[in-house]
Amino acid sequence: MEQRRYNRPGSIAAMIMLSNPAGLAMACTPGIVTVFAREGTVSARQATMLGSCELAGMTLALILASLVLSTIDRRRLAFSAVIAAVLGHVLLLVPGSYPQILACQFLAGLGEGVMAAVAVAAIAGTEGPDRLFALNVASNLIASSLFFVFLPHLTAGGGVRSVECALSICAVCFGLGLPWLPRRAPSAVRDRNVSRTQIFKFEDWLPRLLALCGTLAFLAGVGSVWPVIGQIGASRHLPLPLVSSALAVAGVAGVASALFATWLGVRRGRLFPLVLASLGMICAMLVLLVEGAPELFFVDVICFMFWWIFAVPYFLGLLAALDPSGGLAAFSVAMQTCGLALGQALSAIIVGIATYSATIYAGIAFVVIALLVMLRAVRLHENRLTCSARK
């Protein structure tokens, strides 16, 4: 009965909507930080810390929630998360000290992180998680793009308070599907009947560990290059409008990529899309090393985003196959955030002592490592399924 509920249209819509507040918060962090600093409520350094604090709360929530998602009532957990997210944003409407603002941002991040964890874990329990993960990514990108369109009007009308009010309203609206959200993991009953010896078998956890490491490495490769891609264009004296246009069109390409992955699903398996996306990313980074015509840079930025977004649903789909309870997929979202942060930190260090080419080579190395690790994880999973079928 519970498994069937996971594949109903209402349940699927509830899962996809529930992750959007976290996507909005991550996408809008630079804008919110800028508004805080511009209004003079806090210093520029403190404003940057506010954005980091919300993302830290989100990451912590994703990690902690992934540990209990297989046993807890997910609907109640998501309801508590919506309240926390709304409360965190609403309390920011009241003037307060810097520590109070910091605590509110952290509370909002916790709520949004738990919402995302429940959503990802629920999608992992469906029959076609890869397609739904792709649709989820597309939904996040579209929602973030629309929010960016209205962000200047919000800040002009009421500053940061208008933005926080809008984010709280979005959290409520995206949480309206909670009554259709399944309460339990589809494998919760099965897991309770499995002995502790079986749960901690090395052959079960090795592919899971490899898949997590592969996800971390891939996003570290993205984080090494994407944050400085605009600076790379500027270092080659490319016109600023061209660089800005490339980044804007890349967002549209990301939506198209996610929709393409939604259509493709796993009809060609997971290995083919993962290899294709990784090779596409490597080629896009290699082209960045070439100082060619401005049009080449424009197209390459779009291709970079396309292959990045195309790969994510299949990483999540593999993790969902390795752990149908969804805890591993939810944990991997935190790993994605950590990977982007790790790559960006490494890029900052490399650019400080070398050229942009060095950070591009580092990004390529990360993607190659991710590809090799994921190939091994897929092979181990396939061998495991073959052995189980023979038994």
Question: Element order, helices and strands?
Answer: HHHHHHHHHHHHHHHH
The CATH architecture name of the largest domain reads Up-down Bundle
Average per-residue pLDDT, rounded, comes to: 83
Number of strands: 0
- How widely separated are the two ends? 27 Å
What's the SSE blueprint?
Elements: H1 2-5, H2 9-18, H3 20-39, H4 44-66, H5 74-91, H6 98-124, H7 129-174, H8 188-192, H9 196-199, H10 202-225, H11 229-235, H12 240-264, H13 271-288, H14 294-322, H15 327-353, H16 356-390
Commentary on this structure:
The chain folds into two domains: 2-189, Growth Hormone, Chain: A, CATH 1.20.1250.20; 194-390, Up-down Bundle (Growth Hormone, Chain: A). It contains 16 helices and no strands. It starts with a helix and ends with a helix. It has helices at residues 2-5, 9-18, 20-39, 44-66, 74-91, 98-124, 129-174, 188-192, 196-199, 202-225, 229-235, 240-264, 271-288, 294-322, 327-353, 356-390. Mean pLDDT is 83; it is low at 188-200. α6 packs antiparallel against α7. By secondary structure, it is mainly α. Helix content is 82%, strand content 0%.
Provide a compact summary of the structure.
The chain is mainly alpha-helical and 391 residues long.
List the main descriptive attributes of the protein structure presented here.
0% strand; 82% helix; Growth Hormone, Chain: A; 391 residues; mainly alpha
